[in-house]
Design goal:
The protein is α/β, with parallel strands linked by helices. Helices cover 55% and strands 8% of the residues. The longest helix has 26 residues.
């Protein structure tokens, strides 16, 4: 398989005129002009590593004409669709047919049989429903046939044999409620919210324009206008196109321009002026940034009155619903359709069918403008391959949350997205409730003393679970009676976050302010969330069947595994008294016995160094109480090529304390696990002393004799972090620290006191934290370091394989974020290489992570993996058996009760949960 960057660059060059803002209002270019515009666009959407290669690729796609006109751009979309797609076994899928007799147009996407990675990249650039509509229209599949034969779903990269295997059942065990909604669902939702004058959409659009990451990306793309105005204007164009196509259904002699003129005649005053200005914008691109929200709203009201004869006092239901239903009814008869689900495809299909039938230049211009802007907005929501890394992903993830921040809608849409025939189990991650804290010490109130936090958090959880249960019940109504149905559960994930370094353990003992101990306030916040989660599971019958696990998610660089270790251990039977005591003593909540919670944890995905990533995985296994059958999210560190990583990252930066912990961990592996036999222990000792001097040698105060700092105490202090942050009060009196090196009483000046406790406390002292958190650089290219990395990686791989811990891989997500070059190098193939070398046997499952961000589906993840195996030379039979193994791993590792339940049984359980939750919420309202 080619490098993903190559595929991305080719697809970007091909589709740039359909998604870049510089093409919004221009449809005629000379060949030279077009080449220059594409080159400028690539600078904004990607990186030019080789200008000669880029120019030759542009010329491959765009050198057939001296001048490119509007019709040429439509012809290219048609050719792309014909080249990429085919209808096979009742599914619209990638055309893998390899035949020299096929004409050149059919090979437009790629001259090679493998178009899977091309599709992966182009689907990050544009919504694939556009190409599906082109393919269906130009192959004379009418709209009704497409709806009846499932030809408007996401394009499949799953071949017939793989699909047969997946029909046995698949599980999604790693997806987040935020980030799970496909772009076109978000686009449709925005459309009907705008048309229906919902106040919340005004706030959402303003938040998008004000968002820093949106401003940054607009700057990257060279767009200076308001996204709010652009989105609303485009949604109004969408409305006008729908209205015209309905009108044309009865009036075949009227083209779009004539229709718009007729419409203008029915308007007057400022509304008419704004309407003309808007139409001119579609044609010429003249700025509409002086429009405000009320200007657009007034136009929508005027259109309502003209079309439906409505006034503000005569509205009956949703305007968008009326428009959509009228539009669909003109083209589809006697079908009970989910209009919101199909409206965008139907618009595209009927628009292309109209263009195919009638040479209406104005319609072509307006529809192409609509396509371009929609794809431009798509580029803010779906992450492409131009920039890798977790921070880039987070920008896209947060934008999803901004657009679709209504929980009932989110649950409804995630059911629609995932629960098709093959999905047997679906686990949905919901984030923990975050608290606001006073930054002033005198106003500080302990979290556990705050009844407001506890009561409000309980209420939030009740509402969230109720939304989930209600959406689940709504989904079940669509299924036949007495059928086996997909089983769904919620995973509570704790969002990792950074804590500042202004800490003082001494002052903590004086005022009992949790914020003075690093991450203690955050730990208590997470404990309270877990206590409430467990309380609901115990107090409501059947709730523990649907609230099934916990996770730690978000950016690994923000907090080390020790931070959440006490929380995760507390759900284990061996440590359950910790959680019960904390719940009762601090919050007055009596926890009752309930079923075990499953644990999984995002780790080994984002890391400063190889040693950091491997250490984090090892720490989670050792200190979180991991048992057979529990899971790790991503874990890509286990399967990346050390050699490739070092080639790309010879010099790395990381915090000083992270380097010390890495070295202490490696030292422990050397001393107690008998690893690195070819390396002298003095090598690691020397490295440990170097970084120890950097951190602790302040004004010459570092004990070097037996009464001072030693490696044994350093390691014990490192381990002590995982025990928790409930300090023993008696220690304070013996330490008598004033956290000031100029003080005569400063305990850190006395080298005799450098024991494990003091070293541990130093990690909560602002004086040392300044040094500990300072970024330093190391050279990883040393052969000794490389060998250590490789042996440590194999050690952790073996440990996970022998324990039977499952790694939740997310192929497209990992490719966008992880430290490897292409899908061909995905870590899953090293973690479990039983298809080839049969050396590593880590159990792996396949998931999506955030399909809305990455523009993918669960089934297509399996398709991408299968294609890589074939490209590696693995025979189809062997590849399918390996895929089937990963499929079964997903089913067998779910935290959901795997006892098969009928629709009736699940409905009875959910209705009981729903009734109790409603009663509890009503009582809370009555007690206000």
């Amino acid at each position: 398989m080619a490098n993903s960057k190559e595929n991305y660059l080719r697809m970007l060059i091909l589709f740039l005129p359909y998604l870049d803002c510089r093409f919004f209002h221009k449809n005629t270019f000379s060949q030279e002009e077009l080449e220059n515009e594409i080159l400028m666009g690539i600078e904004h959407h990607g990186h030019i590593h080789n200008l000669d290669m880029v120019k030759s690729t542009i010329q491959f796609y765009y050198s057939k004409n001296d001048t490119y006109h509007l019709d040429d751009f439509y012809e290219m979309l048609k050719n792309a669709a014909q080249s990429l797609l085919t209808y096979h076994h009742n599914r619209l899928c990638i055309d893998m047919f390899d035949d020299n007799m096929v004409d050149e147009a059919k090979k437009y996407i790629s001259f090679y049989h493998n178009k899977t990675l091309d599709y992966l990249e182009l689907n990050k650039l544009i919504a694939d429903s556009l190409l599906a509509a082109f393919y269906n229209c130009y192959n004379d599949y009418d709209l009704e046939f497409c709806l009846d034969h499932n030809m408007i779903q996401t394009v499949s990269v799953v071949n017939h044999q793989l699909n047969t295997i997946l029909l046995k059942g698949i599980a999604e065990t790693h997806t987040h409620i935020v980030g799970s909604i496909p772009f076109e669902k978000q686009w449709n939702w925005l459309g009907h919210e705008i048309l229906d004058h919902h106040e919340n959409v005004r706030l959402i659009l303003k938040a998008i324009d004000d968002d820093k990451s949106v401003k940054f990306q607009k700057q990257r793309y060279g767009y200076n206008g308001s996204l709010t105005n652009l989105i609303i204007a485009t949604m109004m164009l969408r409305l006008l196109l729908m209205l015209y196509l309905v009108y044309y259904f009865y009036n075949k002699d009227v083209d779009l321009e004539s229709y718009l003129c007729k419409f203008e005649e029915k308007l007057n005053g400022k509304i008419k002026v704004n309407y003309v200005k808007l139409i001119n914008y579609y044609m010429t691109g003249l700025a509409i940034d002086d429009f405000n929200y009320n200007d657009f709203d007034g136009l929508i009201v005027a259109i309502e009155k003209v079309i439906y004869g409505l006034s503000n006092y005569q509205k009956d239901g949703s305007f968008s619903k009326k428009v959509y239903q009228d539009f669909v009814r003109r083209f589809i008869e006697n079908k009970d359709l989910d209009v919101n689900k199909y409206i965008e495809y139907i618009l595209q299909h009927q628009s292309i069918a109209y263009i195919k039938e009638k040479n209406d230049q104005r319609f072509k211009e307006f529809f192409l403008h609509y396509i371009k802007v929609k794809n431009f907005i798509h580029s803010f929501i779906v992450q492409s391959s131009d920039i890798k890394g977790f921070l880039e992903f987070q920008y896209f993830f947060r934008r999803q949350h901004m657009i679709f921040d209504i929980q009932p809608n989110m649950f409804k849409n995630i059911f629609d997205t995932y629960l098709y025939d093959q999905v047997k189990f679906l686990e949905i991650r919901i984030g923990h409730v975050k608290f606001k804290y006073s930054s002033k010490l005198e106003n500080y109130e302990n979290l556990y003393a705050s009844k407001i936090n506890v009561n409000e958090t309980v209420k939030i959880y009740y509402k969230t679970v109720l939304d989930f249960v209600t959406s689940y019940l709504t989904f079940l109504k669509t299924l036949p009676s007495n059928s086996l149905v997909p089983q769904v559960g919620l995973i509570l994930h704790f969002n990792k976050r950074y804590d500042d370094i202004e800490k003082c353990w001494d002052n903590y003992f004086k005022v009992k302010d949790d914020s003075l101990i690093r991450y203690k306030q955050y730990q208590e916040e997470c404990f309270l969330n877990l206590i409430i989660f467990q309380k609901i599971r115990a107090e409501i019958p059947y709730a523990d069947e649907y609230l099934v696990g916990i996770d730690g998610a978000s950016n690994e660089l923000l907090s080390e595994p020790w931070v959440l270790a006490p929380i995760f251990r507390s759900v284990k039977d061996k440590y359950k008294s910790i959680l019960k005591d904390k719940a009762f003593n601090r919050y007055g909540i009596k926890l009752l016995a309930t079923k075990d919670l499953g644990i999984t944890y995002h780790v080994g995905e984002v890391f400063h160094s190889i040693a950091s990533g491997l250490r984090h995985v090892d720490e989670v296994i050792d200190y979180y109480g991991y048992q057979n059958g529990e899971r790790i999210g991503h874990g890509t560190i286990l399967g990346i090529s050390i050699d490739n990583y070092v080639d790309n990252h010879r010099i790395i930066s990381l915090p000083a304390i992270e380097l010390l912990d890495n070295l202490l961990w490696l030292y422990h592996l050397k001393a107690y696990k008998n690893l690195f036999k070819d390396i002298s222990i003095s090598y690691l000792e020397e490295q440990i002393w170097k970084i120890t001097h950097f951190i602790y040698d302040i004004n010459g105060h570092l004990g070097g004799n037996s009464e001072g700092i030693n490696i044994h105490h350093l390691y014990l202090a490192y381990k002590k972090q995982f025990a928790g942050l409930d300090f023993v009060k008696d220690e304070y009196y013996s330490l008598n620290c004033e956290a000031n090196f100029s003080s005569k009483n400063c305990i850190f000046k006395n080298s005799k006191n450098w024991n494990e406790d003091l070293l541990f406390y130093s990690r909560h002292c602002r004086c040392f934290l300044k040094k500990m958190t300072r970024m330093i650089q190391i050279d990883t290219s040393d052969e000794t370091i490389i060998n250590i990395y490789k042996e440590a990686q194999q050690y952790v791989i073996n440990k996970i394989a022998y324990k039977g811990i499952i790694i939740e891989t997310n192929p497209v997500s990992n490719a966008n974020i992880g430290e490897f070059n292409s899908m061909n190098d995905h870590p899953i193939f090293l973690m479990n290489d039983s298809f080839d070398k049969d050396h590593n046997h880590v159990m792996v499952s396949v998931n999506t992570d955030d399909p809305g961000v990455f523009g993918t589906t669960l089934k297509n993840q399996y398709g991408f993996i299968l294609q890589v195996l074939i490209d590696k030379g693995v025979p189809m039979e062997k590849a399918l058996k390996w895929i089937d193994m990963t499929r079964e791993n997903g089913l067998n590792s779910t935290f959901i009760n795997r006892t098969k339940k009928t629709k009736k049984e699940i409905e009875e359980e959910l209705n009981k949960i729903k009734r109790i939750l409603e009663e509890k919420l009503n009582r809370r309202e009555d007690n206000k």
